Amino acid sequence: MKRIVIAAFATCILTLSLSCKKGFLDQVPDDRLTLDETFRNRNSAEKFLANVYSVIPDEASQRFPGSDNNIGEWTGGSDEAEYDWGFVATQNINNGTYDASSGFVSGFWTTYYRGIRSAGIFMDNVDKVSDLPSSLKVQYKAEARALRAMYYFWLMRIYGPVVITGDKSINPDASFDDVQLPRSSFDECVTYVTSELDAAMADLPLKASNTNNYGRINRAYAMAIKSQVLLYAASPLFNGNTDYSSMQNADGKKLISDQYDASKWKKAADAAKAFIDQFVPTQFDLYRVNDASGNYSPYLSTRDVMLVDWNKEVIYARIDAGITNRAYELAPYHSGYADEVRGSGGLGATQAMVDAYFTANGRSIDDPASGYVKTGFSDFQAPYDDKARRTYNQWANREPRFYVGITYNGSKWLNTNSGEVITETYNTANSGKQTGGNDYSPTGYIVRKNIVTGDWRQGGRSWVMLRLAEIYLNYAEALNEAEPGNADVLKYVNLIRNRAGVPEYGSANLPVPAGQAAMRDAIRRERRVELAFENSRFFDTRRWKIAEVTDNGPFKALNISANLPEFYNLVTFENRVFNKRHYLYPIPQKDVDSDKQLVQNTGW
């Protein structure tokens, strides 16, 4: 079997229209012979399926979001980070300067629906392929079904309740002007997506049979996505949210229920546990690795889980990702050094994200027992360094994941092929604002997670989209809401902390969070740190309905326009805008205008 390549849209023999004029029900070409030709032989049919796969976004390239590439604004558009460059769409997200006519708003809607339509066409026609074995027809159809369900879910994360197009999505003769469909309720969308995933799972392989099949949808990934769908359905944004009580279709159907249903948390917990029971540890397990001395290394484990392709924790990754696009943003400017260590450093971590990491004793910095020191300097050896260096006390004695995630002023760069490089981010330093011109960190910190230890220009690596740690945290969160006090809640949070090298809750010096609310806070804090810069935080603050606090108001950073010591003073780099309407993107105005049954999201 040939490896399925995530193809560009142009590689498909049957190229669907890229025009935005027809909205989310773009038509296949009127020439039916072209459709027949496409499904006449295995080669062209597999290219068509590759085209369906190509809708999976390349989230390593978030400087270039929207339009036909489906890339999101999730990292720089969350409270984790800020992009240096004004052209990146995250600036519009953070300033609240977008609406139903903004290009990136319509881009996701159009492209995911194009993928949904393509998946339906493939499922409806693959049986015609004469030289494709029946077993592969069944498998490929299941892959397309799972992809279609995934694309619906990813639309739901962005827009809330969507239009379930049904058979009209695969009818090549349907006229867009004749199709007038209302939005399904969010609960109906959840039922449809989970049932489609269940149907696909019956015919999907458990896992990739060999390396040539990496990147294909398998039963494990479909099952994991199902657990995510149910977690979103149980979350405050979609479960008993009265803010959307007036958002109704013309027939009076409420699109988001304002009645809280505790059983949704139980369904989410059960789905995550079903995944764990079936696949752990036989197929997946938390990634753990020893250092050169043979001792377990939390730092290397939490760093390399993102770097070692298809390691035992990775449930799914996007193959052929534009990994060097992200690496360029993570490698500091490093003026005067070799090209292999010179990037832009243009993706800056916020002070809020820096402060979210625990201290070495596993406590939050606002805990009086954390040992956190806000000012002054000390000699401290980072886990990636070969000696102690003079370090600002805020950055000393933090947990291992801090050193995986953050490049700070005075830290040693990972690539030493051309000698030792110390990153300096104050104004006139080697990676400072004045030195870099258009390429510098807007916060004084640079995101480090997911950067290779050698030449940043080295590509060919996958982008991790989902790993086991997230399933563990999904399970703990849902179970804490469904059955507070269940021993598994603490167990799975502590599995994450143990791998990260921080004390477990309930150990000698760290008590178990007392009560459901305290455990909820602990789980959210753990999730924020463990999944930092992995495109979770943007959606987490929204589904929890806390983004009006976390993503709104003044955002702090180091004083990048100053040299030492003023550089260490915190300043406001941006006043972000987030209000209730921003929890969901608006439905693209062109589609609301075309489909008279399509109701706009509240506030837009």
Describe the structure in your own words.
- It contains 19 helices and twelve strands.
- By secondary structure, the chain is mainly alpha-helical.
- The protein has a two-stranded antiparallel sheet.
- A hairpin with an 8-residue loop joins strand 4 and strand 5.
- The two termini are 48 Å apart.
List keywords for this structure.
two-stranded antiparallel sheet, disordered N terminus, 36% helix, 604 residues
Short description:
Keywords: Cell outer membrane, Membrane, Signal. With 604 residues, this protein is mostly helical.
Summarize the SSE layout with pairings:
Blueprint: H1 32-38, H2 42-53, E1 81-83, H3 90-95, H4 103-125, H5 134-159, H6 186-201, H7 219-234, H8 263-279, H9 298-304, E2 314-318, H10 323-330, E3 347-349, H11 351-356, E4 377-380, E5 389-392, H12 400-405, E6 406-407, E7 411-412, E8 422-423, H13 433-436, E9 446-447, E10 463-467, H14 468-482, H15 487-500, H16 516-530, H17 537-543, H18 547-550, E11 553-558, E12 570-576, H19 589-594
Antiparallel strand pairs: 1-3, 2-10, 4-5, 6-9, 7-8, 11-12
Alpha carbon gyration radius:
24 Å
State the end-to-end CA separation: 48 Å
Structural category: mainly alpha
State the share of residues found in helices, binned by percent.
25-40%
**Biggest sheet statistics:** 2 strands, antiparallel
Q: Write down the overall mean pLDDT.
A: 92
- Strand arrangement, major sheet: 1-3
Task: Give a count of the beta strands, DSSP E runs of length 2 or more.
Answer: 12
**Spans of at least 5 consecutive residues with low confidence:** 1-33
User: What sort of overall outline do the alpha carbons produce when their principal axes are compared?
Assistant: globular
How many DSSP H or I helices? 19
Strand content: 5-15%
InterPro entries: SusD-like_N, SusD_RagB_dom, TPR-like_helical_dom_sf
Main location: membrane
Keywords: Cell outer membrane, Membrane, Signal
Organism: Mucilaginibacter pankratovii
